[in-house]
From TrEMBL:
Residues 60-181 form the Peptidase M16 N-terminal domain. SUPFAM superfamilies: LuxS/MPP-like metallohydrolase. Residues 1-25 form the signal peptide. It comes from Candidatus Nucleicultrix amoebiphila FS5. One of its GO terms (molecular function) is metal ion binding. Residues 196-373 form the Peptidase M16 C-terminal domain. This is Zinc protease. Pfam families: Peptidase_M16, Peptidase_M16_C. It comes from the Bacteria. The keyword Signal applies. Keywords: Signal.
Length: 450
């Protein structure tokens, strides 16, 4: 039962240091994952629970912004907006009304690689809700009037997005790191590219990219495996199996060259973004990366926060993490600093990057990082929506059903010697690539060494 399971999950979090058995093993026992394959071969993971009359489904397709045409960046974003502007017999107002009347939650999100749909309904309205979803997938309105409205609304919003310092910095860093690879392109589009996009482009994007060959579905709620197999074919079975003419992309050749670019901007503080090469989530050494990032800057407390903010007061915010695309992997971070202090903040960051490479971590840091990574993991399973989202993302990564338990075992098995040996090879302070937006004092641009 979901309520009982959620209580057990929170109990696991609170008691993780005292439990004789694994917290994630407890979760895996309470949240049993079933693999469902429909007659047409559509694959889904299901956590079945009938405590509440609710069905939640997340579905992902390989239809990200990298499939936008050159010069028409932003097509996928407009496509997603158009999906909820009416479908089948419903115009925009009628579509919104039926979602509200039938308690249907339907939304879409995207990245450079994937389009993700999020669907939730009550069992009472399941039949009507699934019909609405099918209308969206197969009979979106895509009328010229709706398109003009969506496009105008998007263009009105775009300038505010593009003038944000963090947006400017990240796009400039993408241009450096990804070069000519599609990942360097602006997925939100520019005023020029958005104006070029036609309604026909929107229709073609759907025809070319909504296919079953990379469809992965995560489901949680009041439905059996047998019922789900029928549902999968009913909802998704008429999508084309594949598009043989769909563009194929090669892995990105990363240009991590140690450069530092300054983009002048009249702000009282500077925004700093930086990257080095990372590892795929499926790499055998990825657990070591997770532990090291927890210690360096992804956890609380962390070395970078302690040295740059607490001891020296040089920054306002800092974030650090693994940035994993389908065709590239980075370690990326961001910080905000007063213009007068940004040069010193970058200097200390590089020193800490070199320190963890040269001197490694302590046994206490390792144990604390393990505890944080294991103890925080149950928070991914605290609602039907979060569960279905996790299931869908794990399918996209190619994980198996034992991943939940295996993840903890892999983290617990790490020893200090092997983590420190890995850190010596992994961290590249000389290759850290920076973009700074602001008016930083005493900071000089650096050319890359490649």
């Amino acid at each position: 039962m979901i309520k009982a399971r959620l209580l057990l999950i929170f109990f696991s979090i609170l008691c993780i240091l005292h439990m004789p058995i694994s917290a994630t093993a407890e979760i895996a026992e309470q949240i049993k994952i079933q693999e469902v394959i429909s007659p047409k071969g559509i694959k889904a993971w299901l956590v079945e629970d009938h405590t509440l009359p609710i069905l939640t489904m997340n579905f992902g397709l390989e239809a990200g912004s990298r499939y936008d045409q050159n010069g028409k960046e932003g097509t996928e974003k407009l496509f997603l907006s158009m999906l909820i502007e009416g479908a089948g017999p419903y115009n925009t107002e009628q579509f919104d009304a039926v979602l509200q009347d039938k308690a249907i939650n339907l939304s879409f999100n995207s990245s450079e690689d994937y389009l993700v749909g999020m669907f939730r309904t009550t069992i009472e309205h399941k039949k009507e809700a699934l019909q609405v979803l099918k209308e969206v997938l197969y009979h979106p309105r895509f009328g010229q009037e709706e398109f003009n409205k969506v496009k105008s609304r998007y263009l009105a919003h775009l300038p505010n997005l593009r003038k944000r310092p963090e947006f400017i910095a990240n796009k400039a860093l993408d241009n450096v790191v990804f070069g000519s690879h599609p990942y360097h392109r602006d997925e939100s589009g520019s005023e020029t590219s958005i104006k070029r996009i036609t309604l026909e482009d929107i229709k073609n994007f759907g025809k070319q990219n909504l296919t079953r060959d990379r469809l992965m579905v995560g489901v949680c709620g009041a439905i059996t495996a047998r019922e789900l197999a029928v549902l999968l074919d009913d909802v998704f079975g008429e999508l084309p199996i594949e598009n043989p003419h769909k563009e194929k992309f090669q892995p990105a050749q990363l240009n991590i060259d140690g450069s530092l670019q300054i983009i002048e901007s009249a702000h009282p503080q500077s925004t700093v973004v930086f990257s080095q090469k990372g590892l795929p989530i499926t790499d055998k050494n990825f657990r070591k990366v997770q532990v090291l990032l927890q210690i360096l800057g992804d956890g609380l407390p962390s070395r970078l926060l302690q040295e740059i903010r607490v001891k020296r007061g040089l920054i306002y915010t800092l974030s650090l993490g693994s940035q994993n695309y389908q065709l590239a992997d980075l370690i990326s971070g961001q910080m905000a600093s007063d213009n007068a202090h940004v040069a010193e903040a970058i200097k200390v960051l590089k020193e800490e990057w070199a320190k963890i490479r040269d001197k490694g971590i302590t046994s206490q840091e390792l144990e604390d990082a393990k505890t944080n990574l294991i103890g925080g993991y149950p928070l991914n399973f605290t609602s039907s929506g979060s569960i279905s989202g996790v299931l869908q993302s794990y399918l996209l990564y190619g994980f198996d059903k034992d991943y939940i338990v295996r993840r903890e075992k892999e983290i617990r098995s790490l020893n200090l010697e092997e983590v420190n040996a890995f850190a010596k090879e992994f961290f590249k302070p000389e290759g850290l690539t920076f973009v700074v937006v602001g008016k930083p004092q005493d900071l000089t641009p650096l050319k890359g060494h490649q």
